[in-house]
Amino acid sequence: MEPENRLVARGLETEWENRLRDLSAAETELRRREQQRPNPLCPEQLKRIQILGSAIRQVWTAPAITDRDRKELLRTLLEEVILNLKRAAGHAHLTLRWRGGAITVLDVAVPRSKPMGPRTDEDTISLLRRLAAQILGMNTSSIHRWLADGFIAGEQVTPGAPWQIRINEELRSRIVQQAPPEYVPMIVATAKLGVSRQTVLHRVKRGELKAVLVRQGRHKGLRIKVVDEQPRLFQ
Question: Which pairing describes strands 211-214 and 221-225: parallel, antiparallel, or unpaired?
């Protein structure tokens, strides 16, 4: 066999082996997802879900419910929200993917020009990069991570816009050089409370648990205040 032909054959063999590995990995992932697929609901379970679904409107409009409660409810029910904003045309196209697979498509009217919101002093609301350099003393990747986890509260005017973070003494006090002794690492907190990391973060966000962020040193990271009388998830 000519050298050029051998090189071509070797390349085809390598490509074939790569595709076989990809196929094997895809089959393994498919089996894993099939094993994780929940069992079909029985008629009694379906009936209970339908009853709960009919009560959602009552919960949503209940006088005692807050906007934060409504947000938590939406996070529970929604898997993904896709926004296609067409400001020049004066509308936005929303695709809502609910947990369970149902899809809702909406077209809503939006202002053609960007609305001017209330102006706030630069000392109160700062752009992310200025925050990282001058106030919080953290790099942008760390701030993005704590924004995603809900430890730092922020907002975007539109998706993809710079984050805006409200700076106050409460936020400053939660970012420390060294945590008090009663504050423990996340792994210890989850073990003591018997809940997941995400549940701990939700409770921190709701103000049910106190937390500080150690930003420097070998032991940097989130620290949670857990006391013996701290209620567990279902208490």
Answer: antiparallel
